[in-house]
Amino acid sequence: MIKYTLVAALLAASATSAASEITKYECTFAEGRLSLPTPTKIVFSVDAFSSYAKLEVVEISSVVNSRGSAKVVRNNIKVLSIEWLGKGYEFSTAAKEKGAQGASGNYQGIEFSKHRFSVFLKKHNMKAMTRSDTIRHNHSMNGHSSGTCVQL
């Protein structure tokens, strides 16, 4: 019985310390184009085991979006890379009035539910790149923008 109590106490202590080891970043990027939207600001956190990333703020010009989660693609001493799909994202009313919503209901075939966003961070200098891409009619539509991040 004492063995099990000791094991349970150790597991609880390690779970508590692991939960507190969340790394948070704030990244800002240059504004992308309407036809290839990329984030201008992202605040996200990554858990200690790199099993998930939580998107706390995602600002994309002319796009209405919500917070969510992202997949951690790579997290080591040199780089951090996350990606997510734009599920629930849509062009803002102002963007639609400017022509963002074409005849197919989206700008140049961008379907946000299938549109992938990603952030690549070089940890040694905190320089980052954000990308967005969609596959349409067997050709890729890529947007990208450079920026910087700070660890919060």
UniProtKB/TrEMBL annotation:
Lineage, highest ranks first: Bacteria, Pseudomonadati, Pseudomonadota, Alphaproteobacteria, Rhodobacterales
Organism, as annotated: Parasedimentitalea maritima
Top-level taxon: Bacteria
Region named Disordered: 133-152
Keyword Signal: yes
Feature: compositional bias, Polar residues: 140-152
Secretion signal span: 1-19
Protein name: Uncharacterized protein
UniProt keyword annotations, A-Z: Signal
